Amino acid sequence: MGLKWLVLLVLGTLLTLYLAPIALILKNFLIR
After folding, report:
1. Distance between CA 6 and CA 4 in Å, rounded?
2. pLDDT tens by residue, 1-32
3. What's residue 11's pLDDT?
4. Which residue of 1, 4, 9, 10 has the fewest CB atoms within a 10 Å radius of its CB?
5. C-alpha distances in angstroms, 32 versus 22, 25, 26?
């Protein structure tokens, strides 16, 4: 059960790191 949560945590972190720059670019594009 612990390994499952560890995998979810790692996937969540990678997903956040991957989507953060895209979100910033979209936000800057929408503001401008």
Report:
1. 5
2. 699 999 999 999 999 999 999 999 999 999 88
3. 97
4. 1
5. 15, 11, 10
From CA 19, how far away is CA 13, in angstroms rounded?
A: 10
Length of the chain in residues, anyone?
Answer: 32
The two three-digit tokens of residue 19, written as one number:
């989507």
**CA-CA distance, 2 to 10, in Å (whole number)?**
13
For residue 24, give its domain range. 1-32
What CA–CA distance (Å, rounded) separates 11 from 17? 10
Structure confidence at residue 31 (pLDDT): 86
